[in-house]
Design brief:
Domain AB hydrolase-1: 23-138
Protein name: Pimeloyl-ACP methyl ester carboxylesterase
Pfam families: Abhydrolase_1 (PF00561)
CATH superfamily: Alpha/Beta hydrolase fold, catalytic domain
CATH architecture: 3-Layer(aba) Sandwich
Number of domains: 1
Organism: Geodermatophilus ruber
Distance between the termini: 17 Å
Strand content: 15-25%
Region (Disordered): 266-287
Order of helices and strands: EEEHEHEHEHHHHHEHEHH
Number of strands: 8
Strand order of the largest sheet: 1-2-4-3-5-6-7-8
Length: 287
């Protein structure tokens, strides 16, 4: 069961499951702890996993004041401190991966390793244009359903649209009682548009695994590769048939790969950079 955790003046919604080495899961735009359900279900036999709703998302309110990457990293650090978690393996996707990077720089005592899915160092012209597109799309879409269907074109593979997985995601989100407002999503995205820390990856001093989707038109592999090249010793893998969120579309593969990385770190081994061949997709679905 989830619960709110007090972090400074904010009540942050968290969910913690499992037993073992600690893992912190940090989601992206509009995504709540439910976005990590395949990981909360599939890895709890090996790890104690903590997920959170970022400020302005789900059951965590959006307080007054600026929303920045640093502020969200402090929120994540505050959750770990409040729960009495020491250093954790930290995984983040999309905007959550940037928060994870910042957390590793601001509070290295709390981060044992990083898994960065669909990440970047600084949004380039293309990604900035896409972030602004989402900001106005959420404001002008004729309905919530229309926004989700349009937004998900860039988030999930064509196969997930064709096999009904995306349609199921849309229905789940329409039924979700703790919806993010258009204004809160826009403020969240502003944090990344305003972010100006291109040297952040080079300041990271923990083992890192950087994953990218080969058909992701937003956080493209070239951006993830640049992050991996800047982090000393980081591993980089581009999965050619995957998009922005393979941890939902191919969760078995994603969990297996991330578990292997964490086990290397736990064993004190130094994960070695490598490129991995793609594999056939498994059935999609978020559960």
């Amino acid at each position: 069961m989830g619960r709110h955790v007090r972090v400074a003046n904010l009540e942050v919604w968290t969910e913690q499951v499992g037993a073992g080495p600690d893992v912190l899961l940090v989601g992206g735009a509009g995504d709540t702890v439910e976005s990590w359900q395949f990981q909360l279900d599939g890895l709890a036999d090996r790890y104690r996993l903590t997920a959170l709703d970022n400020r302005g998302t789900g059951r965590t309110a959006m307080p007054d004041g600026p929303v920045t990457v640093a502020v969200m990293a402090d929120d994540a650090a505050g959750v770990l401190d409040a729960l009495g978690v020491g250093a954790a393996h930290v995984a983040g996707f999309s905007g959550g991966s940037i928060v994870a990077q910042e957390l590793a720089v601001r509070r290295p005592d709390l981060v044992r390793s990083l898994v960065l899915q669909s990440t970047w160092a600084l949004p380039d012209v293309y990604l900035r244009s896409w972030l602004r597109f989402v900001q106005w799309l959420v404001a002008v879409a004729p309905s919530e359903r229309a926004f989700l269907e349009g937004f998900f074109l860039d988030i999930y593979t064509a196969r997930a649209h064709e096999d009904g997985t995306v349609a199921a995601f849309v229905e789940e989100m329409l039924a979700f009682p703790h919806k993010q407002t258009a204004e809160d999503l826009q403020r969240y995205l502003d944090a990344f548009l305003d972010d100006g820390t291109p040297d952040r990856p080079a300041r990271i001093a923990v083992p890192a695994l950087v994953l990218a989707g080969g058909v992701d038109s937003t956080a493209r592999p070239v951006l993830g590769r640049a992050v991996a090249e800047a982090i000393p010793g980081a591993q980089f893998e581009a999965w050619p048939t995957e998009c922005h969120q393979p941890f939902q579309e191919v969760p078995g593969r994603w969990n297996t790969r991330v578990d292997a990385f964490w086990q290397q770190v736990e064993a004190g081994a130094t994960p070695r950079p490598r490129e991995a061949p793609d594999r056939p997709a498994e059935p999609a679905g978020r559960g």
